[in-house]
Amino acid sequence: MTRDGQPDHPVTIELDRPPPAPPARPRRRRRWAAPVLAAGCLLLGAAAPPGRSAAVTGPVLPAGAVLLAAGELFLVADPSTLTAYGPDGRARWRAPAPAGAWAAASVAGLVLVTERDDARQVTGTTAYAADTGQRRWRRPDRVQPAGAAAVAVTEVRSVADPGQRVQGAVRGVDPATGADRWSVPVPSTAVLVTAPGRIVVVHDSGLTRVHDVGHGAAVAETRLPPAGYAPDNPLVVGGHLVLRHPAPGGTALTGYDLPALTPRWRRLLPVGEAPAPGCPQVLCLAGVTDRRALDPATGTPAWRWPGGAGWQPVPGDPDPTRQVLLRPGGDGRTLAVAVGRDGPHPGGTLPAGTRDCHLAADALACRGPDGRLTVRPVTGT
To answer: Looking at residue 64, what is its pLDDT?
Structure first.
């Protein structure tokens, strides 16, 4: 959000020279009505106001360094060192870097860093203590969160997201030691979808089972309609499973309860519309020009965003309370908007040359125009 009387350019604060605390000022909040958003209110769709929140700058990032987000931390992995930064932009800890850091996640007080080789094959996952960076354990497969628990998979290579199409087995992992707790066989390839306390395994035949992550036992089973099962289909949104599949008259979405897998609603999709990431706790759909959201429990409209189809989500927490979406502006800068359960809210702009952004907690970390790590609060990006 913007505040009157502040400068029309981003304020930069060097990490080694923290600024004095500013005087308290009354906050002005703007909310857009939902479910229908008037196009005239979408300030960012045409000309966004300049970003006016303080940005904290860190070191220059080496060209080959990888920037990732895990829980409330930003990770910078260069060839030798893994450095964790907090949402305030200050370094929390450093540790020897794993080779080929590619993805990161947070679970049970750990930071999980998954590594890939030059052929894009996963070579393992290393767990670090989130508060100190101490290395706890390493496994030769991919480990990912399932709520407060973790599961390990042997992935099948896929252009979209190799970590969700699996084969061989899904294994429950003890976060304290990295050892197996249980194992569920996957005789052929399948799609894995995680949810708090649950995993959903969708086999190529449509046979779908929900397993409890505590002990691996199946708690529900059904056969889904024929569909193009893929890493992004079905989706778990707001505690519900949503499948995109062919139906009389076109393509439909069907929503299922979890863990029972009871079908609750079905909606035909307009031509050119498909589920899209970037909507916390609601099912986001992007069409030719507009973006809208459905309540995943009922399929009823939640809100509509005229002109919102072209915005791209920033990588970060897989189940955030809000998301940030970006779009190039006409002047070289990048427009930003924050999306919550109730829809998009006005944001600001990022300087020209900003790239490689990631979202953690209420902060956005990017490579700045000068190549430095730059962290700024989400509000009024």
So the answer is: 87
CA dihedral sign of residues 34, 327, 253, 214: negative
Backbone torsion region of residue 52, taken as left when φ is above 0, otherwise alpha when ψ lies between -120 and 50, otherwise beta: alpha
- Residue closest to 58 by CA, chosen among 335, 348, 370: 370
Q: Decide the pairing of beta strands 11-14 and 54-60.
A: parallel
Number of helices and strands in the chain (H, E): 0, 32
Starting at the edge strand found earlier in the chain, the sheet holding 110-116 runs 101-107, 110-116, 122-129, 135-139
Q: Can you tell me the distance from the alpha carbon of 371 to that of 210, in angstroms, rounded to the nearest whole number?
A: 45
The rounded distance, in Å, linking the Cα atoms of 238 and 158 is 26
pTM listed for this prediction: 0.81
Among the residue ranges 42-51, 82-91, 262-271, the one predicted with the least confidence is 42-51
Mean pLDDT (the chain, rounded)? 83
Residue-wise pLDDT tens digits, 158-199: 554 544 678 899 999 999 999 999 999 998 889 999 988 899
Which one-letter amino acid corresponds to residue 121? Answer: Q
pLDDT, tens digit (0-9, with 9 covering 90-100), for 77-128 = 998 999 999 988 899 999 999 989 999 999 999 999 999 988 788 899 999 9
Q: Tell me the C-alpha to C-alpha distance, in Å, between residue 119 and each of 123, 124, 153, 288, 336.
A: 10, 14, 18, 35, 34
Phi, psi of 274 (to 5 degrees): -155, 155
* DSSP 3-state of 39: helix
Which residue, among 273, 260, 264, 208, has the nearest Cα to 234 in the 3D structure? 208
